[in-house]
Design a protein that fits this description.
The complex is a heterodimer of chains A (about 150) and B (about 210).
Chain A (H helix, E strand, L loop, with lengths): L2 H12 L5 H13 L1 H19 L7 H45 L5 H30 L9
Helix pairs in contact in A: 1-2, 1-3, 2-3
Chain B lengths: L8 H7 L3 H24 L2 H17 L10 H31 L22 H11 L3 H12 L4 H8 L3 H21 L4 H6 L11
Classes of the chains: A mainly alpha (about 150), B mainly alpha (about 210).
């Protein structure tokens, strides 16, 4: 085995992740290779120094409130979903009621009625077109199951 | 890291009457790990708290997609790391564009990220240098240092949460430590580099 191969074992040796046999083989190599022994000593120092660094834990109050904060997000998520669905339904219903009222009103001019119907037809065509495009690309997206 | 990868979210799910109660138990079990990993990845306490809570929220939303409930943590970890890395990318873009806007000719800060020195406990000069060197590693190399040194994960646990093999974990750790060594060596003054190279420690300068 070359020194380069041994370097792959060096990290596992340093972190005590080798089995007895691998450990013995690596120590035999170290005994005859001052370069690897020196490098190991440097890495050992660095590991000791890094092990001394610890991250600050927040106060107990933060842990007590932690689930509450996650729960608020869950609750708000559900709230937003219901609100959005209801708003869309009400908007569509209100729109149709308004259009129906205008179409049936004899005092409203024919030109306005035609314009309104054209506007509605255009909206429907645009919606169907965008939806069809989305479905087409989604069904052919090879990465759709990959969580981004 | 006690049983984080061996956790049994299925048992938690089955023994609690409601979905929310069960998820509460899962959150309480993993919240410290989630927060501390996020802190190691983004280097800012407020962001770490926000991102770890957001990760739990997303995990709750998609929990039904998780086929093997016994592997909650590796799955959750992917959500958390993706959120953290995405947060860092946005921060870099914002900082790059603000530097472009001002065009003041100010040098870019040494650390690639704005890592708070206050994120580490019992600070001293040597620890600050190590933390700064870590902040200058790229994301996937900093990640293995965090998991190994701050969460004390074994190579097998790291391979599970990173969805890779032990060989990849070993080589990432080697590269990460090599990079840290070089950063410390090139650091101005470099007292740590001297110590890494085996010179005797000066009195009173302990880690």
């Amino acid at each position: 085995m070359t020194c380069q191969d041994q370097k792959d074992l060096m990290m596992a040796y340093l972190d005590n992740e080798l089995n007895e046999q691998q450990k013995r083989a690596f120590e035999e190599h170290l005994a005859g290779c001052p370069d690897c022994a020196r490098e190991l000593a440097q890495f050992r120092k660095l590991k000791q120094m890094t092990d001394c660094v610890t991250l600050v834990e927040p106060e107990d109050r933060v842990w007590e409130q932690y689930w509450g904060n996650v729960y608020n997000r869950i609750e708000r998520g559900t709230g937003w979903l219901l609100f959005s669905a209801a708003a869309i339904i009400l908007f569509i219903y209100g729109g149709f009621q308004l259009i129906e009222h205008i179409i049936e009103d004899p005092t409203v001019g024919v030109l306005l009625k035609i314009g309104l119907l054209a506007l509605l037809g255009g909206l429907v065509i645009l919606f169907v077109s965008v939806l069809r495009e989305r479905v087409y690309f989604w069904s052919r997206d090879r990465y759709r199951d990959v969580r981004r | 890291m006690n049983g984080t990868c061996q956790d049994n979210a299925v048992a938690l799910w089955d023994t609690h009457s409601s979905r929310k109660e069960a998820f509460e138990a899962i959150v309480k079990r993993h919240m410290k790990d989630a927060y501390l990993i996020a802190l190691g990845l983004v280097g800012n306490r407020e962001d770490a708290l926000e991102l770890s809570q957001e990760a739990f929220f997303r995990a709750y939303e998609h929990y039904d997609d998780l086929q093997s409930k016994g592997k909650f943590f590796p799955w959750f970890y992917q959500i958390l790391r993706n959120l953290c890395f995405s947060h860092l990318r946005k921060k870099r873009v914002r900082r790059a564009s603000s530097l472009d806007d001002t065009q003041c000719g100010c040098p870019e800060p040494e650390g690639r990220e704005c890592f708070e020195p206050d994120a580490i406990a019992e600070r001293n000069e040597a620890k600050d240098r190590i933390w700064k060197a870590m902040s200058r590693l790229d994301d996937k190399h900093r990640e293995v240092i965090i998991l190994r040194h701050f969460r004390n994960m074994s190579y097998d646990e790291m391979a599970k949460v990173l969805f890779c093999n032990r060989g990849t974990v070993t080589s990432r750790l080697f590269y990460a430590r090599q990079q840290m060594k070089e950063i410390l060596e090139h650091d101005r003054g470099a007292p740590d580099a001297e110590r890494i190279h085996g010179e005797p420690e000066k009195g009173g300068q302990t880690l």
